[in-house]
Amino acid sequence: MTTEATTDTGAEPLISFQNVRQVFRLQGQRSGAGAPGRSREFVALDDVTVDIAPGQFVALVGASGCGKTTMLNMLAGLVTPSEGRVSLAGAPPRLPNMDIGYMFARDALLPWRTARKNVELPLETRGWDRARRRERAGEVLSLVGLEGRESQFRLQLSQGMRQRVALARTLAPDPSILLMDEPFAALDARTKLTLQAEFLRIWEQHQGSERRKTVVFVTHDLQEAVLLADRVIVMLPNPGRIAEDRVIDLPRPRAKALGEIQFTDEFKRTTHDLFERLEGAIGDRARPVES
Ligand SMILES: Nc1ncnc2c1ncn2[C@@H]1O[C@H](COP(=O)(O)OP(=O)(O)OP(=O)(O)O)[C@@H](O)[C@H]1O
Ligand SMILES: [Mg+2]
Q1: Which helix (H) or strand (E) holds 261?
Q2: 3-state DSSP call for residue 199?
Q3: Is the CB of 72 within 6 Å of ligand 1?
Q4: Average pLDDT, the chain
Q5: CATH code of the region 2-99+176-279
Q6: CB atoms within 10 A of CB 215
Q7: pLDDT surpassing 90 at residue 165
Q8: What pairs with residue 242 in β-bridges?
């Protein structure tokens, strides 16, 4: 079962997008039709309004180019909206924000550092001393199932292990907001399911507590969105906008049953319903819109 998401929960939202519009200026590069050097504008996001409560797990789903990464970048303070307002706990996002962990699709590990040293990186930025860094890195590496791999380098690790290191690095400073940009997209189906379950186990352990992290999780994979999230926001491109905002009522904790949930009628109904909505994002409706 899904229900229309309401943002009227009474709780103060932690994350808020209010009528956000993002216009990128593109330099004309084509010879022929477009005059070289002439810039034109591209509307990446149009009238996006979303409120996210603290501790909520929200998935953003949509075709390539609908502005998902741009929304994460706004929360991280990397992109300032052309119009409208983005706020985090009532204030505009700032850079750097030590309370945010940002994880990308590709592991982006530094190849000259061991797994442990990669995980220590955000702790160095935060000024933790050596002993504390080492202890915390060991702790999160074992949390993601990498005990015994601490001294290995990127090249010695499988793609799944690299993503585990990246996850450990994101979790190490214990940020209260996680921005995850297709974190498991590069993995095969089996490894993906294992990592989804591991991540959900870590996130769900603080169920009902103030320590539960707020997650904004970007994915192309609708099934992944429904499996993991409390709420799925479906986006359409050209211009990037919100088409659907649904609460997912699948019971929690889900981590132990992820494999089975996928075969339940409720899960199938929900994904099918959202799939039909998402379909509109794919194909000939995608056309460039200029402002
Ligand atoms: N800095 C930039 N300058 C110009 N255009 C940009 C910039 N950043 C993003 N865009 C454009 O804005 C649109 C949205 O980009 P964004 O990366 O947010 O999409 P996305 O939904 O994350 O796509 P994908 O699923 O492929 O990662 C794209 O058309 C992209 O080319
Ligand atoms: Mg993206």
Answers
A1: helix 258-261
A2: helix
A3: no
A4: 89
A5: 3.40.50.300
A6: 22
A7: yes
A8: 235
How many whole angstroms separate alpha carbon 92 and alpha carbon 90?
7
DSSP annotation string for 186-243: TS-HHHHHHHHHHHHHHHHTTTTSTTPPEEEEEES-HHHHHHH-SEEEEEETTTBEEE
pLDDT digits (tens, 9 = 90+) for 187-244: 889 889 999 999 999 999 987 788 899 999 999 999 999 999 999 999 999 999 999 9
Counting ligand 1 atoms within 8 A of each CB, the residue from 17, 22, 24, 106 with the most, and so the one to mutate, is: 24
Q: List the residue whose alpha carbon is closest to atom 4 of ligand 1.
A: 24
- Higher pLDDT, residue 104 or 7: 104
Contact 216, 180 (CB under 8 A): yes
The pLDDT value given to residue 289? 45
Distance CA 225, CA 100 (A): 21
The residues with which 50 forms a beta bridge, in sequence order, are: 17
SS3 245: strand
Residue, of 143 and 283, whose pLDDT is higher: 143
Give the model's pLDDT for residue 291.
Answer: 41
- Kindly give the number of the ligand 1 atom that is closest to the alpha carbon of 240: 14
Which pTM does this prediction carry? 0.91
Domain edges within the chain? 2-99+176-279, 109-175
Q: Which atom of ligand 1 is nearest to the CA of 71?
A: 18
| Ligand 2 geometric centre to CA of 145 (Å) | 27
Instruction: Give the per-residue pLDDT at 11.
Output: 67
Task: For the chain, count helices (H), then strands (E).
Answer: 8, 10
